[in-house]
Amino acid sequence: MTRTLLTIALFAATASAQDRGREIAAEWDKRDSGWQDQVAELKMILRNSRGQESTRVLSNRSLEVEGDGDKLLVSFDQPRDVKGTNFLSFTHISGPDDQWLYLPALKRIKRISSSNKSGPFMGSEFAYEDLASQEVEKYEYEFLGEETANGRPAFKVKRIPLDPKSGYTRQVVWFDQETYRPEKIEFYDRKESLLKTLTYKGYQQYVDTVWRADEMFMENHQTGKSTRLLFTNYQFQSGMTDRDFDRASLSRAR
């Protein structure tokens, strides 16, 4: 009887932790809504294991989609060897995401297959799947407790990708307790080893409860490489539509 009661208690505690983890993620998703569309300029700073750096200049456009995941269009402006390269991503609440890459040298559009989503995006430490909007429905959750992240009280939540082709077995996210914005994410590879850490810095509030970071820093612990994204000139609700994010936009985007 004691063993049965203990089993029930452990099951209840696990279920409670799972529910609490999902509640936190859902609250973040709820607060990060209503922005409609977004434009930002950014610099991508790539740093290799020897400390050598190279910089790329990009633009970033996003569209909020009701009832599904967001759409994203990234355009490379500098340097010359990547200028004109465009990346388009349609995130979905369920099922695999749709992602394409336009290569101007070949003048063709390449579809990113689900099996390649864990690969590096344009030589950076961000994988293709990192660029998709993080839909609540695509993970299982577990609340791990409360800790400090970036000097602020945070909820620590484990999330497990439901996609069997994800490059990660799990992620650990620290959500700010006041705003629910993510402060830090740890990514664990298919061997259960810590692969990367993403840190958010310089948050500013824009539309209602929407927060955006001025900097995202992804550090690869296994290779010693890193990628820093610096965002400027955020603009919201400029009237973009699905037409600005169709496949034809890949070849006409600046």
Strand order of the largest sheet: 6-5-4-3-2-1-13-12-11-10-9-8-7
Classify the beta-strand content into a percent band.
35-45%
CATH topology group:
outer membrane lipoprotein receptor (LolB), chain A
Low-confidence stretches: none
Query: From the 3D coordinates, which CATH architecture would you assign?
Result: Clam
Give the strand tally: 13
Helix content: 10-25%
Relevant CATH superfamily? Lipoprotein localisation LolA/LolB/LppX
Element order: H for helix, E for strand: HEEEEEEEEEEEEEH
Label the structural class.
mainly beta
Please describe the biggest sheet, giving its number of strands, its sense, and whether it closes into a barrel.
13 strands, antiparallel
| N-to-C CA distance | 69 Å
Tell me, what's the shape?
globular
Radius of gyration: 19 Å
> For this structure, what is the CATH class?
Mainly Beta
